[in-house]
User: Fold phosphoribosylglycinamide formyltransferase 1 from Chlamydomonas reinhardtii.
Amino acid sequence: ARLAVFVSGGGSNFKAIHAAIQDGRINGTVAVVVSDVPGCGGVTYAQQHGIPTLTYPVVKKGDFVGQGLTAAQLVDGLKNAYKCDYVILAGYLKLIPQELCRAFPRAMLNIHPGLLPSFGGKGYYGERVHKAVIASGARFSGPTVHFVDEEFDTGPILAQRVVPVFPTDTPKQLAARVLKEEHAVYPHCVAALCDGRIGWREDGIPILWEAK
Ligand code: GRF
Assistant:
């Protein structure tokens, strides 16, 4: 299967997925990497591995309007130029345009560093999630992989992993514990997506069928 991967930062989830493709755990290929931050780690890694990259959305800084695609150009590019089957959001922090959600129904995944539906939604990203988890006194956290709908972090949940939260944790310590699990669960989900091992309950909840 052909994947579009969206990144905004270091791209550690993208790198974990790419490594899983290279060692045969994922039957897919990264056709294109999309980012709102042209110079970020994920884009640099893609360029070092000969993977095409696109900028979305149009980068505006003050009156500087940089390169970047419109939503319509993005959808057209992913569908027709790069012939993507799935879209994988991996540390991408901008809202996905509705036209992209509609172009990839039940074919777009995101990973959130908290146990949705708790600690999710607009404003809950990166360290803010871990700060809120520690402040709440919760004793477990972990990554959630979910299908993307038109809001932030509200699509149907596909998989979660659990890590302990210690009351003495700093946000950085918890973030590192969660990130380690992200790098395990996300490639596992992308592999199932590429193998067609995801079914749907009639009430819209996804089912991940494990490989034999
Ligand atoms: C991770 O916490 C991920 O859960 C969130 O973005 C953060 C950075 O991800 N979506 P990455 O290292 O850029 O993949």
Observations:
- Residues 98 and 150 are 6 Å apart (CA to CA).
